Amino acid sequence: MKLITSEKAEAEVIGHIIILSITILGIGMITLFGVPAIYTLEDMANSKNVEQAFTVLDSRASRVTLGDSPLQITNIELGGGTLTVEPNSSNNSGYIFVNSSDFNFTIPMGRIKYTLGDRIVSYEGGGVWALYPGGGTVMLSPPEFHYNGWTLTLPVINVSGNASVGGKGTAVVSVKKMATIIQYPNASIAGRTNPVNGSNNGIVNVNITSDYYKSWADYARTLSYTNVSVNDKNKTAIIVLEVISPMGTFVSIPSEITMRNINMSSSAPLTNLSFDLYKDVKGGACGARNWYATATKGLAELKIGVEHEQGCNYKMIIEYTSETSVEEEWNSIGIVSTDPEKVDFLNKSLNLTLDDSPCPTWSPVICTSSTNYSSFDLIQHYILLIGPDVIFQTDPGNRVDSTKSSFTLYYDPGPGALTYLHVTENRADVGIS
């Protein structure tokens, strides 16, 4: 007898067994897959709530460290996680190192850290950061790091304290203002004055060591005029800022005269480029003060200088050679020599004449051997061709007293060259209850 064709009453018992089996199987599936998913969703919800609470904490902490409020309190639902204050230490090496060839200083950051499983949210350096499973980091709220191409404002938040709570319920986080220390500018320490001195290597480095260094680097890349890289071994974001060249009058003429980040949108970015050239001891009565300086960009070359003629006269020369080796040479008529010779390359009334045509960089102007321009027009024109960074190398064979001679340099810098630096260490004491 087959079960399918049987008409006996045992089929009702089997039906109950099947229904019971399906119920047990369903409960098992829910227990096996549904409950962990619910817990995961709950953890995610808790983490999101904490992230939102940390952005509120960030705002209130700024009122304390950067504003006038002496104390701010923020409530954070723990949701089974742990909230800890971690000042800078060997176990938490979070700090900002600022340096150039003239100065260097380090400011610790510390952090307020929330941990739930493998999810971490931290307040560090005036920003909020999250560490997700797998090691990825993301910025939830930007740090106090502001750069507009001329001025870097960097108030570093230094968190101290010794508190930790965990479990369920609400934690009360208090942020209390302790002190504000101006690290830069600081006239009492050599090398920490504005405008930032760019006479040496011409850069300022801002190195940020943190567990969230990649997100720090990503944020720095969103700012204009920054050069950003990372050191994975040291967990450091490296931010390089170019510094404007020094301007003014300088006694003694160096081997290099540097103009960084000239404003290329200006038709006349140079405002002063002049020299007082003293004769050397071998110069004789008039002093054969031949003097040259050359700047290059790729294969293009700009040469400026003075050449002595017969008697005590000299002439100004400006020569430009293009990438394709086309030369444009300009000379002034004889100028009576003095001691020192006052040579102004931005003289609007001193005209120079083209040695030989053509002069394609002045197109559509048609140049002839009688074409002339003022030294002011010529220098502005050629500087824009080889800018925005121009370094004149002075000729080692120049016949001048370079230690006694002087030069004056002023120009209009474009955005992207650090001029002013403002860095403060803002200390805050954090308590948790």
Structure description:
The chain has about 425 residues and is an alpha+beta fold. It folds into 2 domains: about 220 residues, no CATH class; about 160 residues. The chain is about 20% helix and about 40% strand. It has 3 helices and 29 strands. The strands form 5 sheets. Strands 17, 19, 20, 21, 22, 23, 25, 26 and 27 form a 9-stranded antiparallel sheet that branches. It has a 6-stranded antiparallel sheet with strand order 8-7-6-5-2-11, with helices on both faces. A 5-stranded mixed sheet has the order 1-12-29-10-9. Strand 21 and strand 22 form a beta hairpin. The chain is elongated, with a radius of gyration of 35 Å. The mean pLDDT is about 85.
Q: How would you briefly describe this protein structure?
A:
The protein is of the alpha+beta class. It contains three helices and 29 strands.
Residue windows where pLDDT falls under 50 for at least 5 positions: none
Which bin fits the share of residues in helices? 10-25%
Q: How many strands appear in the DSSP assignment?
A: 29
Question: Structural class from helices and strands?
Answer: alpha+beta
Count of helical segments?
3
Percent strand equals 35-45%
Number of domains: 2
Compute the separation of the termini in Å.
76 Å
Shape assignment: elongated
Give the C-alpha Rg.
Answer: 35 Å
Sheet of most strands: 9 strands, antiparallel
Mean model confidence by pLDDT: 87
